[in-house]
Amino acid sequence: MFRHFQRLRCAEGGGGTRRSRPALSSRKATTDPPRTSRSIEGLPAGREPRRSRPAAPQRTAPDGGASSSLCARAQQQEQEPPDEAGPRARLPLAPRPARLHGDGHAPTGREGALRAGSAAAEVTRPERLGPVGSGSRQRATGGLAAHKKQSAAGQRQDYTGIPFQRGNGGREARPGAAAPAALDAVVGYSDVPFLASKDPTGAMEGGDTVVTQQVCQVDDMHDGEMREVEVAGHPVLLVRDHLQFSALGSRCTHAGAPLSKGYLGQGRIRCPWHGACFSLKTGDIEEYPTLDCLTSFKVTVDGGHVYVTAKIKDLESSHRVKPMSKRNPLNSQTALLLGAGPAALTCAEILRQEGFTGRIVMVTRENHLPYDKTKLSKALGTKATDIYLRSQSFLDAHSIEVWMEKEVASLDLDGKKAEFSDGTWQTYDHLLIATGSSPRRLQCPGANLQNVCVLLTPEDSSRILRLATGKRVAIVGASFIGMEVAASLVGKAACIEVIERAECPYQAALGCQVGQVAMKMLQVQGVKFHLQAEVTELQGEGGKVTQVLLSSGQVILTDVVVVGIGVTPNSSFLQDSSIVLDRRGAVVVDLYMQTSAPSVFAAGDVASFPVALLGGKNIDICHWQIAQAHGRVAALNMLQRQEKLHTVPFFWTKLQTKSIRYAGCGIGYTETVLKGDLSQEKFLIFYIRDGIVTAVASLNFDPMVAMVAEVLYSGKIITKDEAEAMNEEAPPEKA
After folding, report:
1. What number is the average pLDDT over the span 493-520?
2. N or C terminus of the chain: which is more exposed, having fewer CB within 10 Å?
């Protein structure tokens, strides 16, 4: 039985009781010993029961019973859309009028009864969700088994708002609702009028307009619930946690995932798609991948009504950047960051956010500002400027220098100096090695023929698309790069054939259960697979590749070959230094991201770091989220903060519109526990080693991977028995 899944499984109505079960055994399950946090064994003291609401039709399962299974709740998660979010649909909820308050503060009403909760929010403007409340989530209060059962009597009804009277295109609050004083202006907003006020400076222009809007009543939400509401026509996430209300931006700042579909952990919200976490109190980033925080909104409770107060400009903004310190010319220190990927960029921004006023220099051999490399294989042909993580103006504003087309050649550790291939050099006080990795190339005759490609840069991505369009393509390797390239070329290339030496795609990383599902997804679209096959030679005419010879003697005719057979760390410039490397050439670091050399740190693909899920063994994990986590810890320790790495690996791979998510570190797993139905492309797989869950993967089972990641982060363990005890029912088809 799964106590940690109780939030997803909580009933959708009145106050069903939560049963107490033995806590999970405590055992280190992250890259650092678990931080002290409140117990998750049952409800905290002082938590009030769910109050009864007026009778309303219960949501029912297909068999007519109350929908209460874990899988049924997991199924309700919104399918991740393509990268380009479509237009939003207006929520059917009839918003309460937003009320004016001339001093820019929330209505006070009966001061003795006022209760305020901190909040944070970031508002993007992708498509809107369905009715408010349909994406509610519960907070974990115990072990995994506590998410298993709730009585039908505890079903929460979808919140569709208190009845309103419509007139003249607007909506009026129901009779008896307390209206705050100081109403001195009415601003029309679409078809929903709301009352607005000037900010404290008296400005009445656009973004400085302040609005307060009633979004629900206290009794409408039970403790641990998240739902999306509207404030002045903008989506806002409302959370009730430990009887306090918070208002946050409704969408993750990384890729726009609806946070109401995510997981409410110990004081933070985890994104259901890619695992980014935000503080419930401040909206600040607590886990990656993302660069921007959520924007905060004020919440007040008066007379049983819940109000959200916000500036229009904050509701309209999509991101919030933490304040950064200014460059001080009198500070002679230099932080030299070798690389311009997610690790280096995160390190640079954290340095500024934490008060570093010295010089920051990022060095990259490419001709680009930092960009989102994960999109190169998922959407071939993507322009580099469309995926830049930060603009030049942003970097200039925060005095972050980027030296492009410059490659490090060697280090003088004693002199604290980096020498570059063009003969120039730069001294440093703090050094970060974040040079990333490079694709491995075929080691066979013909490997240097024209039209044999690897994928590393935006130019590589565009070249592959250009060469492959309307042509025959052979892809060598059926792991993440190879499979994403194949999916991206469906409908563009004339013929796609994938060659893999293992028994199935993803065998080393995800196993054959997931690999077989992914392979069938592409096979139905015409992609051919050659498994347990090795390339022995590439042959060509006129210097261009024309065919691939396999070890079996089979010949594959092709116009283009794309090679995706793994990567090697970019560390050749360290071969003659005293910095310790592992057998693959990755830089060995400790939990502080410190190398064997003083003042030298390493992060990202090039770093081999201790992983608690592997018993503290050092390995390199080439995930975007890991690189950002490394960069943050390196920056803090450059500032002598003594911060240890504490994270759970989280990554995803996308095959057209379907995403497979993965959290943990399943290297060396010996068995799996399957939930759901592989044939229906809806599943959750637990990877087991020594009777303990070390990783999880899913397809169409959100937010289960996010939940497991949060459990592992907390330091608790999930046993094989607990995994097996989970509800066997696969989530039903989405309506």
Report:
1. 97
2. C
